[in-house]
Specification:
By secondary structure, the chain is of the alpha+beta class. It has four helices and five strands. Strands 3-5-4 form a three-stranded antiparallel sheet. α2 crosses α3. The protein is globular and about 45 Å long.
Length: 140
């Protein structure tokens, strides 16, 4: 079974494209996961997302914050740690384990870990199947 458009189910490989879940224009080079879309759905999605991307960038500038996604390397680290628990029982990572592993392996601070987790949850990359537990979203 080949790839098909996530939204409409189109399966013609000539019109299928990969859409970055987190738009490249706001990730400063971080390559996010992709989802397969047909050209029509891809164009429609970008049209709908354009105001949101502008708003995110505007808010960062207005609050004099750094780029909204300067956490590429830390995000990869967090996802790597969470993914390492996918095959272990119960199939998700506890908050305590994530913080412990990231501190031990990468020397990340509580603040950095918390910030990355919040952004990954807000962007649908991970979710909490139980309180204080993390799992990668199926799309990812």
């Amino acid at each position: 079974m080949g790839k098909k458009c996530f939204f409409c189910g189109e399966s013609n490989p000539l019109v299928l494209e990969e859409h970055h879940i987190i738009p490249q224009s706001i990730t400063d080079g971080f390559v996010s996961e992709t989802v397969t879309l047909c050209a029509n759905c891809h164009k429609k999605l970008h049209y709908l997302l354009r105001p949101l991307v502008k708003l995110v960038k505007l808010e960062a500038i207005k609050e004099n914050l750094p780029d909204p996604f300067p956490i590429e390397e830390n995000a990869r680290r967090v996802l790597e740690v969470i993914a390492s628990y996918d095959s272990k029982s119960p199939g998700y990572a506890t908050e305590e384990a994530v913080y412990s592993d990231l501190k031990a392996k990468y020397g990340m601070s509580d603040e950095d870990i918390s910030r990355v987790l919040e952004r990954l949850i807000a962007n649908g990359v991970i979710y909490c199947p139980r309180p204080k537990c993390y799992k990668r979203s199926e799309v990812w």
